[in-house]
């Protein structure tokens, strides 16, 4: 099961966009809390909840990268696809100073998995190490069958992530374009946001296409260029 655990340092493996400083629309105090968590100053851990495409994975990877840059050992593990195999997947991860577990809802209701997570949580906290969790819902709404695990998760500091509004989506795309040295006309940005899905996963996938096309054609991101590249997908 060793292939389930990231082998490269997360500070190097995580995409540059997935840093805490690049997260858009954070609730007041959240980024400060994650910086403190990365430094090991949040006993008991932290729990992020939010619907898909609210940036949970971004924040988990960003916090792990911050921890590693501070000289701490961090590990990230997505639980989606690991139902029934959690105990083997987390073996050895209790040695991480910071352990980020994503997609907790993917294994909720599987008793053996929940027992493995309960045992892991206790080992981490007993050793003064830090767990960081993310799921679509809070501990009370996940459908957990192990009351002890639900109780442990409920003791974590909890933050709810908002869905980005149009201003937030625009700022996200501006940041990504600027980080890659792209010129994104405001008219083109407005054109894209009025036509693209509000889902951030879809929106960022469209941006990646535009980035590759812009690089290949040596063109700025203007309305005519967006029409040319996305004519099949968007009206």
Protein architecture, described:
The protein is α/β, with parallel strands linked by helices and 235 residues long. The protein folds into 2 domains: 2-160, P-loop containing nucleotide triphosphate hydrolases (Rossmann fold, 3-Layer(aba) Sandwich); 166-230, Helicase, Ruva Protein, domain 3 (Orthogonal Bundle), CATH 1.10.8. The chain has 10 helices and 5 strands, in the order H-H-E-H-E-H-E-H-E-H-E-H-H-H-H. The protein has helices at 10-13, 30-38, 56-69, 86-89, 111-126, 147-154, 166-179, 186-195, 200-217, 223-230; strands at residues 46-49, 74-78, 98-102, 130-135, 157-160. It has a 5-stranded parallel beta sheet, with helices on both faces. Strand 3, helix 5 (111-126) and strand 4 (130-135) form a beta-alpha-beta unit. The termini are far apart.
Please summarize what this structure is.
The chain is an alpha/beta fold and 235 residues long. It is built from 10 helices and 5 strands. Strands 2-3-4-1-5 form a 5-stranded parallel β-sheet, sandwiched between helices.
